[in-house]
Amino acid sequence: MEYIIGALIGYFFGSINMANIISKKRGIDIKKVGSNNAGASNVFISVGKIDGIIVGAFDILKSFAAAIIVYLIFSQNFTAGVIAGGAAIIGHIFPFWMKFKGGKGLAPFMGTVLFFDWKLFIFFAILIIAITLITDFIGISALTITAIIPFYAFYLKHEIIIFVVFFVVSIIMWCKHIENIKRIANGTEIGFLRKNKVKK
């Protein structure tokens, strides 16, 4: 029951889509510009750098907050906290109030990693920045860390439920990045640092 309640709380937090909220205030439909993705990277590229950073920070914090709240509610049940974080990622990707069309999950994924192990968060945050600067594609960063973290998390905790949570959301995120992979392959993907400002 704790896991179910934790998942529901996490999904609710995750479904709060700041990318959609901020872009609408700027007079832009984030789902119709750039990569058509309601997430921080598309806001950064298609709306503005500051807005993208705000959205990214919010998305990290919402999954971290969900995990912490559930962890505290259920007497420091660490696994329930991770489940809440994982559910927040799902809520971010499939928000019910946006017809299940949200972001691709990297920022809330990192928020869950922050709850899991802050040192691991710092290491992978640096790795994301490095890969993005080298390749100009944050999607490659997302694919890299999601391929590593489930197994590293199991190595650290030896908890099968935690492994399953990270593994399942990683698979979903890989599926959500299929179009990015195709665009990178054919040279049509918009680079993260090559800003494509949308005119109002």
Explain what the structure shows.
- This protein has 200 residues and is mainly alpha-helical.
- The chain has one domain.
- The protein has 10 helices and no strands.
- The protein has helices at 2-14, 18-25, 40-46, 49-73, 78-93, 106-116, 118-135, 138-157, 160-176, 178-186.
- Helix 3 (40-46) packs antiparallel against helix 4, helix 5 (78-93) packs antiparallel against helix 6 and helix 8 packs antiparallel against helix 9 (160-176).
- The longest helix is centred in the N-terminal third of the chain and has 25 residues, at 49-73.
- The radius of gyration is 16 Å and the shape is globular.
- It starts with a helix and ends in a 14-residue tail after the last helix.
- pLDDT below 50 for ≥5 consecutive residues: which ranges? 195-200
Determine the mean pLDDT: 90
Oligomer: single chain
Number of helical stretches of at least 4 residues: 10
Gyration radius over CA: 16 Å
Beta-strand percentage?
under 5%
Key words describing this protein structure:
mainly alpha; disordered C terminus
Layout of strands and helices, then pairs:
Layout: H1 2-14, H2 18-25, H3 40-46, H4 49-73, H5 78-93, H6 106-116, H7 118-135, H8 138-157, H9 160-176, H10 178-186
Helix pairs in contact: 1-4, 1-5, 2-4, 3-4, 4-5, 4-6, 5-6, 5-9, 6-7, 7-8, 8-9
